Structure formats: C-alpha cells, structure tokens
Fold this protein.
Amino acid sequence: MTNPLIELQRLGQSPWHDNIRRNLLTTGALKRMVDDGDITGLTSNPTIFEQAIAAGDDYDAQIRSLARQGKSVDEIFDALAIKDIGDAADVFAPVYHRTEGADGFVSIEVAPRYANDTARTIDEAHRLWSAVRKPNLMVKIPATAAGVPAIEECIADGLNINVTLIFGLDRYDAVMNAYLTGLARRRAAGKAIDRISSVASFFVSRVDTEVDKRLDAMLATAAPDQAEQLKQLKGRSAIANAKLAYLRFRKTFSTSRYVDLAAHGARLQRPLWASTSTKNLAYPDVYYVEALIAPDTVDTMPPATIVAYKDHGRPEVRIDRDLDGAVALMQRLADARIDMDNVTTKLEIDGVASFAKSYDSLIATVTAAARAAASSNGAGGARTASVKAKAAVKRKAAARRSGTTARARKTAVKRKTAAKRKTTQRKTTTTGRARKTSARTRASKTRVRATAGRKRTTGRARASATAQKTRRSSRGRTSAGRRRTRR
C-alpha cells in the first residue's frame, strides 16, 4: 500500500513533524519516521517544549545537573532545548544532504518575550544559531511588526529563518519582501546566497476558529434568511485565506526581482502551512491538509494528524481549485461585516500571548525543579518538586484542552440538535399532512356512507309505498268481488 505522506512529497509538498520531546530521540521513534519517509523536517515552539518537559522525567537528570552547576533557569532551558534540537538536526541530516539543502530542517523559536523588540530578536536569533551550530537549523521569528525587519537582517547575515505566526495577507507580503531584500543585501555584499533557506509559516485552522466564533455571535440574532447565508460561511475562511496567500507566493516568486536572485542560487521561501489540525470536531481530521496540497510548500502536522493522514489521506493537488470562489468568499465575509484584517491582527496578538504564556509555564516548571536540585533535599527533593510543578502544568494544559474540547463538543451537539429539530419538523409536517389526508378520507367515506344510507332509506320507503298501494288495490278488488256476489 502506498504511503500518502510519501505521495505528498512526490507532489512537491514536504510533511514536517510539529512536535519534539526527548523520548522521540532516545527511543529512535523519530529516526524511524524519517527512515520510513513519513516526515522530512521538524518544528517546535514554546507550547511543545512546555508539554514535553512537563510530560515525564526525561529531562529531570539534566535539570538537576545544570542546577548544581549554578546555571540560571534560562540557561537550563536553553540547554534542554538546544540538545533536543541539535540531536533532531542530526536525525534529519541525511534528508538535508540528499536534497542538497532543500529539506530536512529543524526549527527552534526565539523567546516570545522578544516578539516586539527587533534588536533583541536579532541578537537572540544569532545566539541560537551559534549555539546549535547545524546547517539544517532554522530559527523561528514571529511575523510581528518588529519581527519583519529582524527577518531581513538575519537573512542578510546568512541565517536560515522560519517566519512564524503569519495570519494576514498584507503581513505575508511584508515577510516575502523582507526575505528578498535580505538576499539582495547579502548578494550586494558579495556573499553567497545559495545555501540560505527560509519558510513562511502561514497559520490556518485558527482563522476558522476566530471567524466561526464571530459568525456564531451573529447567528444568535440573525433573521432566518440571513442565518442560512451566515451558516454557509462557516469553516471556509481559513482555506480561502491560505489559497490567496499561495497565489501571492506564486506571483512574488515569478517576478524578475526573484528570478535575478535565483540566477545566483537563491531558493524559494516556501509557504509552510501551520496549525493544520482541525480544532472543530465537526470537520474531518485531515480537512486542512487535503485542501492545501501544493507544489513548493511544507505542511507541519502534529502527531495525530500525521497518523490520520498516513491512514486515510488522499494526496492530490487541490489548492488551485476554485480560486475565484476563494476571492468571492472573502467578499461575502466582508459583506457580512467580518473584518479579516481585524481577525488576523487579533490572531497575531493572541498567538504571541499564547506562546509567551507557555514559555512562562515551562520556565516555572524548570525553576521549581532547579531550586529543589540546588537545595539540601538532593535528587529526591528535586524529583518531588519537579513532579508537583509538572502536575500543575498538566492541570493547566488539561484545562485548556478541556475548554477547547468542550466548545467543540457543544458545537457538535448544537449541530446535531439543529439537525434533529429539522428532521422532527419535517416529520411533524409530514404527519400533519397525513392526518389531514386521513381526516379528508374519513370525511369522504362518511359522506359516501351517508349517501348510501339515504339511498337505502329512500329505496325502502318507495318499496313500502308500492307494497301499500298493492295491498290497497288488492283489498279494493276483493271488496268489489264480494259486492257482485251479494247481488
């Protein structure tokens, strides 16, 4: 049986793994996925590291060792992340060399607290680049207003950059411009540009989550005819937004500006579809992956989505289907007073805040374990504190997941209830019609019986009258005979 993930690669799309944790490396599980051809790259973020460190005791020994050396909490987390990312880069090195530097990348993110500070972002990106020291590393920089000039500077300095948290089309244009400007500056300085790689991570499902929430608020007070039109917009904005982004990618990288750079070895800055797992349980589990298959792209998927796609994915280039429909959908959203600029701006702010919250949470976990390790309680105390801190992190993560799942379940229940209500209404209407028909039938039968009864009554009356006449006539003839006899 053909592996759908390998088929994606034949169509020009690279499947990446949006996850990392130490036991994937120590057990050889990540290497097996690479060897099987399932994945050709890996991405990480603060939320992923938060969950990885809180999940078990894989990191405890290293945390204790570093704490006893007097390392700060930030230095401890750096060491944990850099080891995992460096080891993962080694796992993907064969892919990197086989594709001559076109694939096989592993990403590590600049701390979210620098998202709105250009200078600190540049410094942090260089520090991570130097610390990992792998040619197939990508440093993730968020596409904030402060992040865009940092992207240009880092590209000009020769770093591989994964631009993250892109939601809006205008911001995406700015990201592509920063990449091309950085390459042009580097080329003008007489430096090589043929080994610099970059991806632009365009987030998908979160767009539907935000737009659908706004549509639901409108549906609560909409008239029936308007409600039907609003319902037709749900679950479609994210894919339409991504399709329009892909159109801009093709346009930008077919200009003479890029072609001139490509003549000196410049590579495409590939769109990377991020957040392609479905947040709404009402949508299929590979809904976004299937819709956004396209040449010269990457799709980074969480473990569950990778498993699902390998099981029942149907690889086929679909992104260029109904592009006019994508444009029309955006106009319909605008007509419905859904401001996509406002939506994408909010998602960018929320995305930075979410990663910052995860970063703070994982730092709290590391802090508790490090303090315990440095105390007189030794390894046992460190382990106890670590367990307590991790338990708190797990509870918070579970609460967030529970809230998301609960919302998704409520949405599914609402849809099922609405469907049942419609079915019941149809049944009620049908039953009402049947009852009316039955009543008319009974009335008709009653009229027929009444008519028949009247006819029988009339017939009997006529027969009785005839009989009476006959008897009277007979009696008359008998009396006349008697009178003649007497005479």
Observations:
- The chain has a mean pLDDT of 86.
